[in-house]
Amino acid sequence: MTTSPTRRTIAVVHAGLGQPSSTRLLADRLAEATERELEALGHPAAVEMIELRDHAHAVVDAMLTGFPTGDLARAIETVTRADGLIAVSPLFTTTYSGLFKSFVDILDKDALTGMPVLLGATGGTPRHSLALEYSMRPLFTYLRADVVTTSVFAATDDWAQAGGPAHDGGTSLPERIERAGRSLAALVASRDERGTPDDPFAATPSFLDLLGGD
Question: What GO molecular function annotation could you give as one example from this UniProt entry (predicted)?
Fold first, then answer.
């Protein structure tokens, strides 16, 4: 008897403010790369895109009341029930945007525990690329998410050179996106359907069972 491949859901949260925005573009590219890699690993994938600009007022209300409602509540449920998360923010004053942080702040503190997460950021200059490591990664590590090693920063010049070699002699933006997508897909594919690691002790009898107690 053959088992059907397990469908995986990837939630994509981005805090781009413009329409269109380079932040949304990077989020799309990362989602596409992850979806392709999951398909190659035998897992059909569904991508759920969440544009935080559409929920900005509701995010502020939730911070004041402590209770997200309506479309925002549904967006949060999409994130917390996903098998993996792609989180992308523009950088302002060398760190993630206030809207991005506010959304993270209204999540339950345990909501992302064990969640495979891929981080991305956009900015005007490559000088800000380290913000991913000193700002965004610690934020999700604090929330006990399983953040993939590869993160992707896209500067303005990266989009102009997207089809060719990187300006600094390193890997190009498309190459970095593909590598990041592979990393997230591999991590998501290794998880059970709830997005958490398989428990190696799940079948172990309890102490009470061993003693024959009630």
Answer: oxidoreductase activity
